[in-house]
Description:
- The protein is α/β, with parallel strands linked by helices.
- It has helices at about 5-40, 50-55, 60, 70-95, 125-135, 145-150, 180-190, 205-215, 245-260, 270-290, 295-300, 305-315, 320-330, 330-345, 350-355, 370, 390-410, 425-430, 435-440, 455-475, 490-500, 530-535, 565-585; strands spanning about 150-155, 160-165, 170-175, 195-200, 220-225, 380, 420-425, 450-455, 480, 500-510, 515-525, 540-545, 550-555.
- It is about 50% helix and about 15% strand.
- The longest helix has about 40 residues, at about 5-40.
- It is elongated.
Amino acid sequence: MSQSSSSSDGYDIAFKVLLGVFAVAIPLSHLAWLGGNLTALLTGHPWAGYRPADALIRPDQLWPGLEETSILLGARILPALALVALATASGVWWSRHNGDFGGKNKRRVQGTAKARDIEPLLASAITAKARSLRPSLKDADRIAASDTGILLGNLQGTRTEIRMGYEDVAVAIMAPRSGKTTSLAIPSILAAPGAVLLTSNKAAGDAYTTCFDARSRVGRVWSMDPQQIAHAPRTMWWNPLADAKSLEGANRLAGHFLAASVDASQQGDFWSKAGSNILSQLFLAAALDNRPITDVMQWLAFPADRRPLDILRDHGFTSVAAQLKGTVEGPPETRDGIYETARQYASALLSADIATWVTPQKDVPEFRPAEFVASTDTLFLLSKDGGGGASALIAACADSVMRAATARAERTGGRLDPPMLAILDEAANVCKISDLPDLYSHLGSRGIIPITILQSYRQGQKVWGDAGMDAMWSAATIKVIGSGIDDPDFADKLSRLIGDHDVETKSTSISDSGKSTSISMRQERILPADRIRALPKGTALLFATGLRAAMLDLRPWYLEPDAGELSAASKAASDAITARAIAKAAPPQADFGLAV
C-alpha cells in the first residue's frame, strides 16, 4: 500500500474517533451541567450559568460551595446513568423500526409495509368501514374494536393493530404449531359479535376447550362430535336431508361424501361419478319421504328395492327415477360396482354411534341452521383426520350453515348484522366442501366471514385441485402466511409477490492518488424464499388485496390480559374430556352379589 493511502486511512480513523468523542462528550457535558445545577438547588446553592464544558471538566469551579460527594453524584454518576439509558432507548427504537427481522426485537423487514401503506386495515379505516357495513353500528357513539373487524396481529415491531374487516374472506397457510389456532382461530372466536362456526380435528387443549365456556356466556354452544373426539354427551342431532328435497340439494350432499372419500384428481372417473349419482338419487328419495338418512344404507344393500323408485315417481321426479331404474336394471357387474362404490362413500352411516347424530333422537333438540345463523350461538364441528363419511357429515353441516346464512342475508338487506364467522380449521382434512373456492367470491359480501386454515398450499391443491386452490387464493382478500413454509415453489411465489426493493451498494477503490468511494443502487428481493421459510414463530406475512405485503407480530390468546381465566376454563374442560375418556374405557363392574 502506498504512503498516501496509509495516511488517508489514518485520517479516516482519527476522524471517526473524534466523532465518537464528540458524540459522548457533548450530551454528557450537558447532562452534567443539568445534574449539577439540580443538585445545587436541592442543597441550597445558586444555579450556575450555562457552561457545560466546565461542568464536565472543572465542576468544583462551577459549583464551589458543593461538597465533593454531591458533585460526584449529581455531575458524574447520574449524568452517566442517564446517558446510558438514552443510548439504550435509542437502540431499542432503532431496532424496532429498522433493519432485518428475527431475534428478540423482531425488527421490521426493509421493504415491507409501514403503517401508512396498509391504512385500510388500521383502526380508523376499519371502524369507518364497519359503520357503513353494519346498520346497527351506524349511529353508535363508540364501537368496540371487536365489532369492527378480526384482529390479525400487530404491525411488526409496533403496537399498531391490524384487522381484517367484516367483508373480507381469508386463507391462512400455517404449519402445525405456528400459531394458527392460538393466534388466529381462538382470538377470532372469542371476539366474534355474532354466530360462530368452527371445524376442527382436536378438542383437548385446543379452540374447543379454550372457547367453550366463554362462548356459552354469549349464546348456546352446539357440539357435533360423531367420532367422540371430546367424548361429549350428545346434546343435539342434525338432519342432513333437510336440504336434500331438491335435486341440487341432494347432489351437494352426495358431493360431500364423494369429496371426503377421494381426492380431487379422482372425482371425475366413472365409478366415482356413478357412485355419487346413486347416493344423490337415494338421498333425494329419502328426503322427499321424510325418512332418516340411514334408510339409504338399506337401499344400497338391496338394489332391487323399488321403494326409492316409487317415491321419486310419486313426487314428480320421473327423470331421476328413470336414471335410477337404468342403473338398477343395467349389467349386474356394473350395477354391483356402482353400488359398492356408493356403499364405501357412505359407510360411516353404518356406525350406530355416528348415525345417532344425524337421525331423530327422543328428548334431544334438533340443530336448525336457519335459527342458528340468526343467533349468537357457537357450533363446534369435530372430526378426526381422514374421517371418511364422518368428515362428510361435518362438511355437509358446515355447508348447510353457510347456505342458511346466505339465505338469511338475502332476506335482511343483503348482509348479516352481526356477521357470522366460519373458521374452517383443518379444512383439507375434515371440511372438504368441493365448491368452497367458488363460495369465496360472494360470502364476504353477505356478512359471512370464512377463514380457511391449511397446513400448506399443496394440501389445498390435493383437495380442490390446482385450479380450485388457485381460485380460492385469488378470491381471498386476506392471506396470512405463518412459519414453516417448506415448499420451495410456493416460497418463491410468495417472494415474487412481495417484490424487490432498492439496495444501496458502496464500493471503495484505492489508487496512488488516494481512496475513492462510490455509491450505486441495485434491485434485491425484499424476502428471498429461504428467509420466508425461516420466518420465526410468532410472526406472519400478510397479503391484503391492493396493499403492500406486511409483516405481523401474532397475538396469541395466552398473552392477553384475560389469559388466566381462559387458561383455567380450558384446563377444566380438558380435564373433563380426560375423565369422560377414562370412564368410557373402564370395563363394566361385575355384580358378584348373591340373589336372594
